[in-house]
Design a protein that fits this description.
This protein is α+β, with helices and mostly antiparallel strands. The chain is built from twelve helices and 18 strands. The strands form four sheets. It has a seven-stranded antiparallel beta sheet. Strands 3, 4, 7, 8, 9 and 10 form a six-stranded mixed beta sheet that branches. The chain has a three-stranded mixed beta sheet with strand order 1-2-5. Helix 1 runs antiparallel to helix 5 and helix 2 packs parallel to helix 5. The longest helix is centred in the first third of the chain and has 14 residues.
Length: about 350
Amino acid sequence: MRFTIDDIAPMARGAAVLGGGGAGEPFVAEVMLGEVLRENESIEIIGLDELDDDAEVAPFALMGSPHALSEKLLGTVEPSILFTDNTLRSRTPSAVMPYEMAGLNALYPLAAAGLLGVPCVDGDFVGRGVPSLDLTTLELDGAQPDSYLLCDPNRRTVTIQKSGGLSVERLVRPVVETMGWLVVVSTSSLSTAFCRAHALCGSVTRCLELGRAFGRLPALDESEAATVLARCGGAVIGSGVITDRLSFADGFGPRSSLAVESDDPVEAPLRVELRNEFHLAVRAGEILAAAPDILVVVDRVGWRPLSAEDATPGRDVHVIALPADDRWRSERGLRLAGPRALGYGLDYVEFSIAAHGGAPR
């Protein structure tokens, strides 16, 4: 598959959908990707099954604060430094791969692939937006690489080598803060066998397909929109105006709760619980959708995905649920990224289109 400049807008839209309210605004990486593609015309996307058996892959992600990103420019040198100029790599990798398929991190690896002149692998280690390096299939499988490589916009580099059961997030996050809250993160080179065993296959193309599907929704009536969402595995589980947002903190950190007043006056409000992302949708005590499935709050007219910060009182919205990869719905996946793991005293309830009908309310 060849990724071209015409694919940027749907890719960014899909990245916002998979962010589930988090993962950072993709705009900056969108601009960077556009500049790369004006020079290179297209970027090759290859499947995990297309990688040579002896190939090595370098995953890429941006890590830090959205506020830092608004003050600093993404550079074009960091990928090269982490890709080739590092003593932990015995040879130059054959491809790059996204670490997290959401927000900025869905687009930045594509730009890195274009800058480096190598393919981008159609896969990642999350399949959606998450706030932590510990919420990945690498952690799920007990397969975290031992070495993490960081480079900031000033070209300063740090290598972190871990062992045993130490948390990658707790090791890396303080270094990111010290480096000014914006770094590019990679790992030691990953073998083809490793990527095939632990990556989620097809996540780049899924992001692009979701972006194209959501781009069609503003021109459709409610029934047609429901059909398109159903083809993506999703459904609208509530529609209405956000009337209230309550914010507070608990032992897991800042948390907010949205009240979405339904169009139907006899229907109880839909309550959406969130931290960095939207995590729970509950109506009258019934859980309609829950993490690790993906909750998306979109502007009702344009179907534009809203960030957690933009979901404020007065917004007229649809609340959409999309299924996570089956690996996240496993017993181990729920222990790592289910509602209880995220600080909610509730068990996971699997989202299904059949249970909720799929039509906007």
